[in-house]
Amino acid sequence: MADALLDINGLDAFYHDFQALYGVDMQVSQGDVIAVIGANGAGKTTLMRAVTGFLKSRAEAIRWKGQAIGALRVDQIASLGIALVPEGRLLFPSLSVEENLIIGGQLKRKGPWNLKRLYSLFPILEERRNVPATALSGGQQQMVAIGRALMSNPELIMMDEISLGLAPVIIKSIYEALPSIVGEGMTAIIVEQDITKALAVSTRVFCLQEGRISLSGNSADVSRDAISRAYFGV
Ligand SMILES: Nc1ncnc2c1ncn2[C@@H]1O[C@H](COP(=O)(O)OP(=O)(O)OP(=O)(O)O)[C@@H](O)[C@H]1O
Ligand SMILES: [Mg+2]
What we know:
alpha/beta
């Protein structure tokens, strides 16, 4: 696709001898909200690690605005405008909420996101800004993790399991924030276990099964049956 922002082409990924992704293709255009679904161990996190540089791949397997980035370092990829909200959040435990957020802004990329805007998106974080990040509830920590990524003013935000293990009321407030996050042309790739939720918030969906794309399509068009087959391979 000529106008793809992110173009993943024949991506293989390995942990030593173990191959976790096989020939994954995914074209992402600016403004897409992509949902990646799939069973435990299907390769969702691995895909995000590869795109963000935590796992090296063949340079040409991942292109960003046409540039081959598969072999770049994590910091190089971050400065191109790709941010990750990692599985498990990985906040800095000894730092306050605000310090964790400020770290996200260190790339000094230009864009709409700053502390003020973030605090209006998640007011609870302003109330708790001087508290160690680990003193927050899981849901509030997830807001910090999302905020840290936004503070880098990315063009693509990748969110891995943003609602896993969180209370329904928190999940609701995180998803209510999503339109403000992806407004103004931000592109997002979201890993979400809740298929109904994944389809509701996304424009397109990809299902991974044992390291391979087993289904892709417009979220509004894919049938439940097709998803079940792609998910479980039955
Ligand atoms: N650090 C690692 N070393 C070796 N194998 C790994 C490592 N991380 C993941 N794997 C393996 O790679 C495969 C894909 O894992 P991955 O974490 O990408 O799956 P996932 O779809 O994110 O699963 P989950 O829903 O459980 O988060 C699995 O078989 C997993 O056991
Ligand atoms: Mg995972």
